[in-house]
Amino acid sequence: MTRTLIKQATIVNEGLKVVADVLIHNQRIEKISTYIPAKDNYQIIEAENNYLLPGMIDDQVHFREPGLTHKGTIASESRAAVAGGITSYMEMPNVNPATTSIEALESKFEIASANSYGNYSFYLGATENNIEQIKRLDPSRHCGVKVFMGASTGNLLVEDTNALERIFQQSPTLIVTHCESGPVIEKNTANLSKLKPNFDIHDHPVIRDHNACYESSSYAVGLAKKYRSQLHVLHITTEKELSLFDSGPIERKHITAEACAHHLWFTDKDYEKSRNLIKCNPSIKHQSDRDALIQALHTGQIDIIATDHAPHTWQEKQLPFTQAPAGLPLVQHALLTLLDHVTDKRLALEQVVEKVAHNPAKRYGIINRGFIREGYYADLVLVNLDSKTKASHETCLYHCGWTPFNGHTFSSRIESTWVNGQQVFDGNKVINNPTMGERLIFK
């Protein structure tokens, strides 16, 4: 197989920036050196003045297959993901039918093995009566179990105390949670209905407020402390919740927290312009919350940045507020939003790499990924911090055909993405060979 030689990139890895050459062969990084001589059969990538990062590992996406493929598919959304510098992802169980058995879980792996542009894993969905399925999870081959602790529908809603105790006590894998309290949301809704007959998008962070998030997150953290469970709380949105999480290196923790790109970007002031396009659960809240989340990335209270990519059709999003579904497509532009934070000096590039690549690899125990090291898989993204990218509905690659960033010009550009040593995005187009991705394997 032809070797790929990336010349004179500024490698951002493990807290350092180093200008070097990187040689790729047989899916992996064969050599890293200040100078590697080129040979006639090498594919040469001139990368001077560009930054080479480990590909983003997105621990929370909704790719909608099976059953909801009018919104997206594993093929379409993973294709958009690699164009956005995401080389690995972990996908959620709220499809149709919901992924609540090992058999259903493995069928999704089969779909991905034939159609995914990026590396992949899938969560089993917890119910109030599938503990035996949860106990069958293989920690080396399954990324975890997803628990909707309120704010979900059907059998994926887990509110029964005994069921939650069993899950936190007996799960052999990481437990990841969506934390919003159903009773608090119902109370907020009832109180608001006394003041106004009809709700609109501005009411979303009132209905799904700080208390709804905190009551559920604190309950999950309490269970994890009681049983010494491995817990990862997804999409933290409030300053209030941050008190639940310790600062410091991720390796020392059994309870970790995630923030999502859109909650680090939008605030409630953006509802006026974007309306239902940025309706999501948990809701986008206040600027003070967004600023606190960014500060928590510095302290280490927030360990991982993900997307919670959740596409819906344009037509669905045009429905009245109470009928419009929650969720927005993000994988193509999430890393670019973070690079804007770097340009604006809210984050350092080394911090972004830690939160989107190193820490997901550590938290999930992903073998030989998430770092730029000799012998590791060549899951890489090359970015240019001096070349702009304009986002638009017309240029997005999502099956749904729209982006919440329509009209925004990002300060950076993604020049190339490699998955398992093969270039899948060349800066202009995705290279159409949707069998690049492999199943993630865990320690």
Please name the defining characteristics of this protein.
about 450 residues; 12 helices; 8-stranded mixed β-sheet; alpha/beta; TIM Barrel; globular; 6-stranded parallel β-sheet
Short recap of the structure:
The protein is of the alpha/beta class and 443 residues long. It has twelve helices and 19 strands. Strands 1, 2, 3, 4, 5, 15, 18 and 19 form an eight-stranded mixed sheet that branches. Strands 9-10-11-12-13-14 form a six-stranded parallel sheet. The chain has a three-stranded parallel sheet with strand order 6-7-8.
Low-confidence stretches: none
Structural class: alpha/beta
Report the sheet-strand fraction. 15-25%
> Class of the domain at 56-364 in CATH?
Alpha Beta
**Spatial extent as radius of gyration:** 21 Å
Backbone shape = globular
* CATH architectural grouping of the domain at 56-364: Alpha-Beta Barrel
Mean pLDDT across residues: 97
Percent in helix: 25-40%
How far from one another are the termini?
29 Å
Q: Which oligomeric state applies? A: single chain
Largest sheet: 8 strands, mixed
CATH homology superfamily name of the domain at 56-364 = Metal-dependent hydrolases
The count of β-strands is 19
CATH fold description of the domain at 56-364? TIM Barrel
Number of continuous helical runs = 12
